[in-house]
Design brief:
By secondary structure, the protein is an alpha/beta fold. It has one domain: Aldolase class I (TIM Barrel), CATH 3.20.20. It has nine helices and ten strands. The protein has an eight-stranded parallel barrel with strand order 3-4-5-6-7-8-9-10, surrounded by seven helices. Strands 1-2 form a two-stranded antiparallel sheet. β4, α2 (80-93) and β5 (97-100) form a beta-alpha-beta unit. α1 runs parallel beside α2 (80-93), α4 crosses α5 (150-162) and α8 runs parallel beside α9. It is globular. Mean pLDDT is 95; it is low at 281-286. The protein binds phosphoenolpyruvate (PEP) and manganese (II) ion.
């Protein structure tokens, strides 16, 4: 692979394990489950997600506060107020959080409230942003560009690594093709290839790939079967009411069921889905 000297596998069994909190990491035997709504909408919404998903369990809570929307008239995210909500829920539930950073100016505030910074698909080739998160000492979740080749994806990760941040997790989230029945095409071939080419963890987002909630669970199980290190899945206390990506959001009940259904699949490929005891539930709600 062209000049990806930091990301490339040097010997076939070397794997980078990235720690997201004291007891959560990605890239080892345990499958990482990231769950939560597309957008942070309110404290009540995020509290509901965090308290219901303890039993799944999810290890990382997601929720966008700076939203890259196709239309400038669509909800653009709660911004700083949303970041404060994430910080509150993170503290109350002792649950690491990931959220998207869309510009260099947002990095400092996002890094102060989140455990992992997400670079969204639309910014995978925003090289100044990649260089800037390369200088942050927090893990980065790099999503594949809408029409990025595997090589471009790896070289985007290489930008972050070469600017000093070794903690990069790649996320396959589907690529554009001709068929609009699914929102995107989940490229599981890329997951298999990436696991052979690079030593960094690779997770899969079946939600943005499918675009339809009824396709998400089967794609999630397929992703684990083919060697993904984790999943990022959108879910919401009232899926139909989601302010963004409602059509692909799972209910919290379906999210719990999905996580349980992953166990035999993970076991079949020598992996493990953590059980709920690693989750420390709400201590005190102020
Ligand atoms: C998201 O995860 O909320 C998101 C916007 O995803 P993507 O960048 O993959 O479209
Ligand atoms: Mn979304």
């Amino acid at each position: 692979m062209l000049n990806a000297k930091l990301a490339a596998q040097s010997h076939s069994d070397h794997r980078t394990i990235i720690k997201l909190s004291e007891n959560v990491s990605v890239g080892g035997q345990d499958i990482l489950i990231v769950g939560g709504p597309c957008s942070v909408e309110s404290l009540e919404q995020m509290e509901s997600v965090a308290s219901h998903l303890g039993e799944a369990p999810i290890q990382v809570l997601r929720g966008g506060v700076y939203k890259p929307r196709t239309s400038p008239y669509a909800f653009q995210g709660m911004g700083e107020e949303g970041l404060n909500i994430l910080a509150t829920v993170r503290r109350r539930h002792n649950l690491p959080v990931v959220t998207e950073v869309m510009s260099i100016a947002q990095i400092e505030a996002v890094a102060a409230s989140a455990d992992m910074l997400q670079i969204g698909s639309r910014n995978m080739q925003n090289y100044d942003l990649l260089k800037a998160v390369g200088q942050v000492s927090k893990p980065v979740l790099l999503k594949r560009g809408l029409s990025a080749t595997i090589e471009e994806f790896v070289l985007a990760a290489e930008y972050i690594l070469s600017h000093g941040n070794p903690q990069v997790v790649l996320c396959e989230r589907g690529i554009r093709s001709f068929d609009s029945y699914t929102r995107n095409v989940l490229d599981l071939g890329a997951v298999v290839a990436l696991k052979q080419l690079i030593h960094l963890p690779v997770i899969v987002d079946p939600s943005h790939a499918a675009g339809k909630r009824e396709l998400v669970a089967d794609l999630a199980r397929a992703a684990i079967a083919c060697g993904a290190d984790g999943l990022m899945i959108e879910c919401h206390p009232e899926p139909e009411e989601s302010v963004s990506d409602a059509r692909q959001a799972l209910s919290l009940e379906d999210m719990v069921k999905l996580v349980h259904s992953l166990r035999p699949v993970a076991a079949a490929v020598g992996r493990r889905v953590p059980v709920a005891k690693s989750y420390r539930p709400l201590l005190q709600c102020v």
